[in-house]
Amino acid sequence: MLPIERSRELQADSATLILQVEAGLFWFQGHFQTLPILPGVAQLEWVMHYGVSLLAPGKQFAAIENIKFQQPVLPDSLLQLRLDWDAEKSRLSFRYSLLSHDGEPSASIGKITLC
After folding, report:
1. Whole-model pTM?
2. DSSP letters along 18-75, please?
3. What mean pLDDT do residues 14-24 have?
4. Helix, strand, coil shares of the chain as percentages rounded to 5?
5. Please, are residues 100 and 66 in contact by the beta-carbon 8 Å criterion?
6. Is the peptide bond before 32 cis (omega within 30 degrees of 0)?
7. How many Cβ atoms are within 10 Å of 64's Cβ, its own excluded?
8. Is-contact 98 107, C-beta < 8 A?
9. Which end of the chain has the smaller Cβ count within 10 Å, N or C?
């Protein structure tokens, strides 16, 4: 289940998307009941979905090089997803930033190898 895409900017090897993470998304069910947060697996699924469809068609997941979850993503958050594709290294780098009146703190960053 994908978030609502509010905007998209494409360049040769990068994409920037603004995503609305609605509270009704499947991902929040049971993760966690008293304080729902968006699971890391959902964030990775969205990186793969947008990264492969926009920047690296035909590629598949091979490995996670590194990943850091820095801030929880709560229901009804507005996220910026920045994707950068390095074809030479077959590496997809990503950064989720929380968009709010307090600035744009990083929610998560990482690098995924595709094949």
Report:
1. 0.95
2. EEEE-TTSGGGTTS-SSS----HHHHHHHHHHHHHHHT-TT--EEEEEEEEE-S---T
3. 97
4. 15, 45, 40
5. no
6. yes
7. 11
8. yes
9. C
